[in-house]
Amino acid sequence: MLLDLRGIVARAVDPADVASRTAALDGTLRGLLARFSDARYASAARALFGLPPAEPGQNLTVRRELAAAEAGHEVHHFRKRVEPKLVEKIAWELLADADRFTRSPMIAPRLAPATGRQPIPADPFAWEVAEHEEQLSRLWSAIYAARAELLAVERLISLDADRTEIVHTATTAAWRWAAARAEAISYSTSFAPELESSVDELVSLAGWAPRLTSAQASRLTEAAAGEASREQLVAALHGDSELGNIWIESFLAQQPLLEENGPLS
User: Fold this and answer.
1) What sign does the CA torsion over 249, 251, 254, 260 have?
2) Which of 24, 109, 128, 197 could form a disulfide with 12 if both were Cys (CB 3.0 to 4.6 A apart)?
3) DSSP symbol at 13
4) What is the pLDDT of residue 258?
5) DSSP annotation string for the chain
6) Nearest of 51, 6, 37, 49 to residue 24 by alpha carbon
7) Range of the domain at 67
């Protein structure tokens, strides 16, 4: 049943291959356990499923003892009272993940190794198909680039990194996010008008980003349009402290901004 979940099938390199879906399930579980929302039991849940602090090769009995110790419970109590709730929580997270893939307007195309060059014949239909794939590739490239930077910001915050570095990375994330939104608008306008109302939902696939008004999102998108560089985006938004502060402060939460960095730097 787990291997048939839509989120697992969608992530598998080869959905027809059980080993490929198993690898996708393993990666998905690792991600869910890395972001386990209950801080008290996060380490215990990871140990139970064989992730650090557990070690490779440990059986369930050993992992359960380690998980109980991490949670501060006696083993019998942990097995009877705590473990079922942890497993149930992970199960619900997997179902929620599958539901998000079910409701998603698009799923990233799978790639396969090229066995040789694939020349495009001089034919209008072939050109149109190639252009569509080109635009689709640019869209997903932009979405994944935005995801990488948004993850980088969260990682630096978690590491309690220097605030200057966080602000710099958050600005890069703003650029990538805006570029992804520009690509989503371009793709939907040219090839999928039915997705025009889902542009922001498409961009949300990159991950959490600060909440902006429609006007602010458009302003940021315009600054990144036309393959603008990071420096060009910063220059275009120079003086727009409101937009910059909303984006940065949403990441830094209660932390005060460094004045010398400005809103986007």
Assistant:
1) negative
2) 24
3) S
4) 39
5) -GGGSHHHHHH-SSTT-HHHHHHHHHHHHHHHHHT-S-HHHHHHHHHHTT-TTS-TT--HHHHHHHHHHHHT--HHHIIIIIHHHHHHHHHHHHHHHHHHHHH-S--PPP----SS--PPPS-HHHHHHHHHHHHHHHHHHHHHHHHHHHHHHHHHHHTT--HHHHHHHHHHHHHHHHHHHHHHHHHHHHT-GGGGGGHHHHHGGG-------HHHHHHHHHHHTTT--HHHHHHHTTT-HHHHHHHHHHHHTTSPPPGGG-S--
6) 6
7) 2-103
Please tell me what DSSP assigns to residue 258: P
Q: Kindly state whether residues 153 and 210 are assigned to the same domain.
A: yes
> What pLDDT was estimated at residue 254?
47
Residues 137 and 232 in one domain: yes
121: in domain: no
Residue 116 lies in a domain: no
What is the model's pTM?
Answer: 0.78
Indicate whether 39 and 159 sit together in one domain: no
pLDDT in tens, 61-84: 999 999 999 999 999 999 999 999
* Percentages (nearest 5) of helix, strand, coil residues in the chain: 70, 0, 30
Complete DSSP assignment for 97-141 = HHHHHHH-S--PPP----SS--PPPS-HHHHHHHHHHHHHHHHHH
Residue 109, in any domain of the structure: no
